[in-house]
Design a protein that fits this description.
- This protein is α+β, with helices and mostly antiparallel strands.
- Helices cover 27% and strands 36% of the residues.
- It has one domain.
- The protein has helices at 2-8, 24-33, 40-49, and strands at 14-15, 18-19, 55-65, 68-77, 82-88, 94-97.
- The strands form 2 sheets. The chain has a 4-stranded antiparallel β-sheet with strand order 3-4-5-6, covered by helices on one side. Strands 1-2 form a two-stranded antiparallel ribbon.
């Protein structure tokens, strides 16, 4: 779990096409605090608990898609398979693979 926490520090958050640079983390923190989204750490814990093998987070983005906030996560498994997954940022519900 330490790896996920360290990786989370390196994340870049985006909302739609607006790149907020230094304000990214603060805006995401405000959204979590207001209850509009769940914390990325909480979502990662949920994903890890549901997996049998180890996963590494490569990239995470917070985007607005179809009018709702979505976490777009790029993960790699032990076999080196990279998957891009989408999760509702408010509920943590898995939406679909980006490749679908």
């Amino acid at each position: 779990m330490k790896y996920y926490l360290q990786t989370a520090l390196l994340l870049s958050f985006f909302i739609g096409s607006n790149v907020w640079a230094d304000e990214d983390h603060e805006r995401a923190r405000e959204l979590v605090k207001s209850g509009e989204i769940i914390a990325l750490e909480q979502l990662l814990q949920k994903i890890v608990a549901g997996e049998k093998g180890k996963l590494r987070l490569l990239e995470a983005e917070l985007e607005k898609k179809s009018g709702r906030l979505v976490y777009e996560l790029e993960l790699v498994d032990e076999k080196g398979l990279v998957r891009e997954l989408l999760f509702d940022a408010k509920t943590g519900e898995a939406l679909r693979d980006e490749d679908d």
